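Try this one yourself first.
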């Protein structure tokens, strides 16, 4: 019925211990808001962009200068009315089109790394400042945690066709469905707090689970191309910061769009039923 892969209990215990500290701390930080939230987001942007730039450099056997962390912090924390990420992305595309290897290694890769990490985190800060902002950020985090947790515990165990070797051959396509179901259920549960209908909440949760899986699989592909198991070693049981926020980055972009579109019309709170006469 179920495959029985060996589970690294020590790694699992480390993951649980780290999450027991970071999970509740993250939710408290979301409630508190700036400036503490801005400081932590800036640190995540710098560390995640550095790790991503290192992964991209490792795939070509190079080491990149420390441009990515600085640019990522500027992108994530720049005033919301400015457009630094769009300008940097355009510069990176132009540099990529130029085709010079030195330009790709020392300019394009750091800029792409910085924008890939900094832009979603920037959107997450923008969502936090919007109406119902704390609820949307909490939805982003919890949706990611539910999806990642189910994929970690059940992904390698469920039978069925495996993902391509270039992505993650230990996981199956069926192994992602429990996380999607949990995400949809949490979206249904959170619908009223987000200001959307229950149907929209469930669909949004499902989309959030799919985005979370996509972010995780994209980072897995990059790591396999670079021959690296983890993006870093700063978080016991997880690896690097990027290993922990890869799914959050994808779901944050969805939350930014949904918070502007789906929640534009407030949902009236449920009132008492009709009075019997």
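Now uncover the answer:
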């Amino acid at each position: 019925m179920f495959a029985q892969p060996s589970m690294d209990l020590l790694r699992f215990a480390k993951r649980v211990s780290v999450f027991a500290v970071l999970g509740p701390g993250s939710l408290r930080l979301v409630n508190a808001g700036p400036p503490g939230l801005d400081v932590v987001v800036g640190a995540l942007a710098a560390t995640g962009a550095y790790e991503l730039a290192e992964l991209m450099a490792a795939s070509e056997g190079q080491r990149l200068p420390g441009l990515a962390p600085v640019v990522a912090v500027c992108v994530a924390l720049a005033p919301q009315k400015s457009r630094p990420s769009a300008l940097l992305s355009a510069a990176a595309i132009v540099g990529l089109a130029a085709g010079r290897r030195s330009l790709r290694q020392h300019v394009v890769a750091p800029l792409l790394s910085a924008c890939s990490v900094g832009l979603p985190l920037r959107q997450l800060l923008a969502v936090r400042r919007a109406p119902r902002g704390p609820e949307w950020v909490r939805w982003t985090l919890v949706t990611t945690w539910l999806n990642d947790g189910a994929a970690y515990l059940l992904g390698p165990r469920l039978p069925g066709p495996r993902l391509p070797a270039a992505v993650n051959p230990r996981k199956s396509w069926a192994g992602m469905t429990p996380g999607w179901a949990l995400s949809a259920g949490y979206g249904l549960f959170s619908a009223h707090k987000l200001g959307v209908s229950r149907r929209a909440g469930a669909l949004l949760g499902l989309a959030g689970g799919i985005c979370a899986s996509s972010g995780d699989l994209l980072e897995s592909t990059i790591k396999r191309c670079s021959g690296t198991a983890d993006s870093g070693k700063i978080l016991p049981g997880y690896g690097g910061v990027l290993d922990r926020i890869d799914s959050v980055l994808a779901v944050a972009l969805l939350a930014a769009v949904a918070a502007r579109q789906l929640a534009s019309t407030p949902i009236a709170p449920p009132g008492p039923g009709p009075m019997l006469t």
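Discussion: The mean pLDDT is 81. The CA atoms of residues 93 and 219 lie 20 Å apart.
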